[in-house]
Design a protein that fits this description.
The chain is built from 22 helices and 14 strands. With 523 residues, the chain is α/β, with parallel strands linked by helices. It folds into two domains: 268 residues, no CATH class; 225 residues, no CATH class. It has an eleven-stranded mixed β-sheet. The protein has a three-stranded mixed β-sheet with strand order 1-2-14, with helices on one face. Helix 2 packs antiparallel against helix 3, helix 2 runs parallel beside helix 12 and helix 4 packs antiparallel against helix 7. The protein is elongated.
Length: 523
């Protein structure tokens, strides 16, 4: 059974729930991909690859993405062994089914464990493993190529321009041999946790100190073997220069997410984990068959619900997202940047949807039908003045919701950094075609009583848990935030209609709806 899968790449990964019921072990796919991002964000080699991917996103020129993939090919073993072993440490009772379901990853995890040449309690092994794989991703040569007066142009930083001693997988072989010959030397002592579970419950005040000891040992072994290596947080000194090189090359900013290796420095581990989770795409089903009906079709034919619950459902989405979400048949839809579509699910095994293009219409045409109009506007669409102005009569707090398709962490920081806004949120589980998803629902409010529209993010249970850890890691955000699961009860009619349509009529959910050729809009 293949119920969930991930594919590590520059723009995220897919959690596919469209085939069968997902086993507990399959849910670890997201965790595996997050560990990949952890290694990327905290190392020089990883940041170089990220810059190239982000340059492709910002410019629309996919040759940058191809260049990134050729560089990443020199770090595949390093990445996969690290992510496989770290995922197993968090598997808990699902470890046996994880190894049975993913035998290739089990072999990678075993190989990582063998490289350590160390017998110790699990938490000490985590320090050692972090040190081995981070140091292999921290070649000094990458930094020198970026900061030197004779620095190579960004497009010329390729595997052919790198010596073997700068390639992570080659460095991993060198470090493995050095550990076999010389070992770790005296191990640091910790008064902290022994197991991963202990760490989750009590933390570890000695984390950075112990992590540095293991890392410095790897640096020494690599350097003595002819593989110069950056110090523990050496990558951070070069982030601005790396970003500036990309901006100079393509003439516009890029998105770059650096991070420190220690929990002590900004951004926190929780930031890194949640930013990684925001690369996840949740797929409930393949592209949905949809019939676009013509202008002559009466609006009343698309009324959904029964009795007092009868309503029209209007979805306002980026046009590109509509075209990728549905297998469209019938009348062509408008070619505009954003589309406004009346939607109704036909039901049946094909989960077919009927659409009527209302993009060129006026809100009054819908209001004149005589049934409530419930509107779901995407966050990306709502950021544009023309959408707010045209559809304002339907975008009220009581009759509309916002589908979160942009980064929650970015926007919640913007909204909560001031003194005025507060946040209420709820987490509610829903069953969709036999699968469990979580609706993260939030609403901003002021002390005056004014509130925002309800925002809805459809996420995995893993993301929902990471979201709460992220809030807890930032006291200034948590102080302005309240978990209020009664929020869904107080707005049950609106949420029931909105979430019902989302789960029945949309195949995928993610936080990457901005146009790849422009900066994500601020709100």
């Amino acid at each position: 059974m293949t119920a969930a899968h991930g594919r590590y790449h520059g723009t995220g990964w897919v959690i596919d729930l469209s085939e069968d019921r997902v086993a507990e072990a399959d849910r670890l796919t997201s965790i595996h991909e997050m560990w990949h991002d952890r290694l990327q964000f905290t190392t020089m080699y990883g940041l170089l690859v990220q810059v190239l991917w982000s340059t492709a996103d910002a410019s629309g020129e996919q040759t940058w993405s191809q260049q990134a993939h050729t560089l990443l090919a020199g770090a595949v073993r390093t990445h996969e062994e690290f992510a496989a072993w770290m995922t197993e440490q968090l598997a808990g009772s699902a470890l046996a089914s994880l190894r049975a379901g993913y035998p290739d990853y089990a072999a990678l995890a075993d190989r990582a464990r063998q490289r350590l040449q160390l017998t110790a309690e699990p938490y000490t092994l985590i320090h050692a493993l972090n040190a081995v794989y981070r140091s292999c991703m921290q070649p000094s040569a990458i930094a020198e190529m970026i900061v030197a007066d004779t620095a190579l142009p960004l497009h010329r930083i390729t595997p052919a321009s790198l010596s073997r001693t700068a390639r992570p997988d080659h460095r991993l072989r060198i470090l493995t041999a050095a550990l076999q010959t010389h070992g770790w030397g005296p191990l640091p002592r910790s008064s902290g946790p022994v197991t991963v579970r202990d760490y989750a419950e009590q933390g570890d005040d000695d984390w950075e100190q112990i992590n540095r000891v293991f890392y410095d040992r790897c640096v020494r072994l690599l350097t003595e073997a002819g593989c110069p290596t950056l110090p523990y947080e050496g990558q951070l000194a070069h982030v601005e220069r790396l970003h500036a090189r990309a901006v100079q090359t393509i003439g516009r900013p890029i998105r770059l997410v650096p991070a420190g290796a220690s929990t002590a420095g900004p951004p926190s581990d929780a930031d890194v984990v949640l930013r990684s989770a925001e690369s996840e795409q949740l797929r409930l089903r393949p592209a949905v068959p949809a019939t676009v009906v013509g202008a002559e079709t009466p609006l009343r034919s698309l009324v959904a619900g029964r009795g007092d619950g009868r309503h029209l459902f209007l979805a306002i989405r980026p046009g590109a997202r509509v075209r990728s979400a549905y297998s469209l048949g019938g009348t062509p839809v408008a070619t505009g940047r954003h589309l406004a579509l009346l939607r109704a699910a036909v039901g049946g095994p094909e989960h077919a949807v009927v659409l009527k293009d209302m993009t060129a219409c006026r809100p009054a045409e819908l209001l004149d039908v005589g049934v409530p109009v419930v509107t779901s506007v995407s966050m990306a669409a709502l950021a544009h003045d023309e959408i707010r102005e045209r559809w304002g009569p339907l975008l009220t707090v009581d009759t509309s919701t916002v589908l979160v398709d942009l980064s929650p962490t970015r926007h919640l920081r913007l909204w909560l950094d001031g003194d005025a806004h507060r946040l209420r949120y709820a987490l509610a589980r829903y069953r969709a075609a036999g699968r469990t998803v979580v609706a993260l629902v939030w609403q901003l409010y002021l002390d005056t009583g004014a509130t925002s529209r309800l925002h809805i993010a459809i996420v995995t249970p893993a993301y929902a848990a990471a979201f709460e850890v992220w809030l807890d890691s930032h006291p200034h955000l948590r102080a302005r935030t309240e978990r209020d699961d009664d929020l869904t009860d107080r707005h049950e009619p609106l949420l029931s209609i909105s979430i019902g349509h989302l789960l029945a009529e949309e195949p995928t959910f993610d936080f990457q709806a901005f146009d790849e050729r422009e900066e994500p809009p601020d709100e």
